[in-house]
Amino acid sequence: MRVVKWVRAAVVGVALAGLVALSGVVLGRIFAGALLVQLVAGAAAGSVGLSVATRRVPNWVVAPLSAGVLGAYTIVALKIAADRAELTGALAGIVRESLVNGIPRLLTALIPVEPTPDTVVVPVIAAWLAGLAGAEIAVRAGRVLLGLLPATALYAGALYVVGPNADTAGWTTLVFAGLAMVALATSARPAGTASGDIPPTDPTSSDDPAADAPNSKDSTTGAPSSTNRATGAASGNDPAAGEASRGLPALARGRAMAGAAAGLVVVLGLVVAVGPWVGARVGATPVDPRRYVEPPQVDSLDESPLNRISGWALTPREPLLEVSRASGAKGRTVRLRLAVLPDYDGVTWRVGATYRNAGRALPQLPRPADVSTSVVRQDVTIDGLTGRLLPVVPAATEVSGARVAFDAATGTLIRPESLTPGLRYSVTSEVQTPDLNLLPTAETPSGDAVARYLTVGADVPDEIQRLADQLAEDNGAAYDRAMAIQDFLAEHYKRVADAPSGHAYPNLRYFLFGPRGRGGQAGTSEQFAASYALLARVMGLPSRVVVGFDAPAAGGTVVAANAIAWPEVLFDGLGWVAFDPMPKSKDPHPVEEDFTPKPTKPAQPPSEAPAPSQTPPSSGAPTVLAAPPDQGPSAAVVAGGTSGSVLLLLAAAAGAIVLMRQSLRRRRLTTGTPDDRIAGAWSEFTDALRLAGRPVPPHLAATEAALYAMSPEPEKRRRPLRRAAPKTGAPEAGAPKTGVTEGGAPHAGVLETGRPGSGTATVDLPPLDELVAGINTVGFAPGRADDEQAARAGRQAVAYADALRDRRSWWRRLWWHVHPGPLRWNRRT
């Protein structure tokens, strides 16, 4: 009999431990790795096993003993989680912080949740308490059905915490029901017992086998004991009692049938009344408890770090960060992202993030399938940077050395405890490299998914709206509109360090259209990036502003002067593409030259030319005036001397211009970084077109500008050039070659163009594909160009300029050499 009791208690205990462990399996679906499931399973086994092993010990001893073991197990579990998360610090501090912040950290953690001390402490303690309560009720008190309630409540709580963040817990629920049935079936008594529970264990009962003998006699008289007499009477040995008991089974069966019928009626009524409501709730999305818990918050400077650009510009040498060598980065600089600002209301660009506590592994942000990525690793040490925002190479996939919170929509990272000098952390990032050759034909997404990136505040200033309309007038493609904004800002505005902060509508209107002499048309990267993003949204391009730093890829100090803001535009299939509207010259063109209100009606030419004025003829003979005597040299002598001096001065000026032009070309093509030399080659190319009387329109992209340069008369045509469609199969004899490479840039050969009303014209000029590829690299991947690419771009620019000059007449070639325009058109430092 004792063996049967122990077996039943053991089976019920194992079932209870399994039920509690299943709660850890359900909750572990939102955790990274299997550590939480292991810790919860250990707590379930420890609590239930301890209770079953001490079932004959008095109750007042078991509770303190289990509490002590729970404390020891919790400390061990937190130590394991801290070591797994590579957390430093005293264990006592880690335990204290975990106990204080366990619940909010669990409900604000980013999914998948990393098993850190503050995210595992609550599940471990709850599992231990549920196992202890269930074992005490089911095993010690013998109430198995009631003892299943703590484990059931823990399982339901795990489902609630998971909410809609994981799939339906199907198999775990079936296993849970199966274990509950096993526990109930094991505890069922044979027929004739009062209930289906395990008989409660009496710690004071005797273990003497004789006490269980059915026919034991009184030790003094030899007669059957009173206990046996009572048992015999109850079992029917007493005739009188037997007569009375024969009527009990029928009465009991009747009562049982009546109770079953009443219970069935009640159950059916509940099904009819509550069933539809329950069915409707089951089909709905589970409630996410995270919406009731406030995530980590940031102050106003971290919510809109764009305001900090002007302050950093005034203290350019202030050290902010120390970075190590960026392993895997290409180019001489690497761009660190501090924050992404997608929300604008006409007053402030804001992050608008919902931060969730995250572990070392961060979820990957959505990215186009065809965009290639490269892994970059870098260590960052905080120096003078304040706030909570963490600068990282985008997009970070793993951060170690600092506890972080993460915004899954933008990829912005913060440290909840604020930055402190000396904080060091390591970042692993996946840098996306979109194919820039696809940009000219790429479209931008639309709809509710990108409504956030198209929203602007109410009452956009009329001047800004008119400017956006003018820039979009001849640019139908999304990329053409994006480049038109970039070129307009880069060519007409000046970068200054002492510009006041601000990017509300009044600030941007004064930046775009204010008078030059009084602070207008000049600003920091704050105004350039904010103006670009606003104009892009007005033109229908989903855009955002990003704040960060240009850091040396080889490692070193990042100072305040390295802080920069830049705009990004979202393209289908390419993701977010950064643009650079910062000025390339210190002598920008006044805005008034290219942005003027258009007349409502075109100016009408006069109906007839005005009559020329007639001078009446002189009636007398011409009078010769003699020079007065002794008045110095004659007019002829003076005129001759003056002419000679002017000629000498002109010759000297022409020689000086030729030397300065040669020095300018040499400086553009041989000094500075590869990016600087490629930009210099592009300036040589555009200067050549201006010298030929064919300046490049500002709205054209690099590829379109190269096609424009190959056209015989591009300045007379508003529509883009039509590239000849490549023919399949072998070309026909005498058919002209197309002048476009696979990437869209002109190559050596003959370009075929046409226009209505004229035949087909061809222009045979040197190729420009390397120059176009280089300038696209500089514009969209700064720092990626190398010396060889810069040399190729320079050779193509010089070859094209020389060929274009040689096509001029002799006097135009002479004027080409002495023209002073290139010295001021693209002035470079």
UniProtKB/TrEMBL annotation:
Keywords: Membrane, Transmembrane, Transmembrane helix. InterPro entries: Bact_TGase-like, Papain-like_cys_pep_sf, TgpA_N, Transglutaminase-like. Residues 216-230 have a biased composition (Polar residues). Residues 599-615 have a biased composition (Pro residues). Residues 585-596 have a biased composition (Basic and acidic residues). Residues 203-214 have a biased composition (Low complexity). Residues 190-245, 585-636, 708-765 are annotated as: Disordered. Pfam families: TgpA_N, Transglut_core. The keyword Membrane applies. It comes from the Bacteria. Residues 517-583 form the Transglutaminase-like domain. This is Transglutaminase-like domain-containing protein. It comes from Paractinoplanes deccanensis.
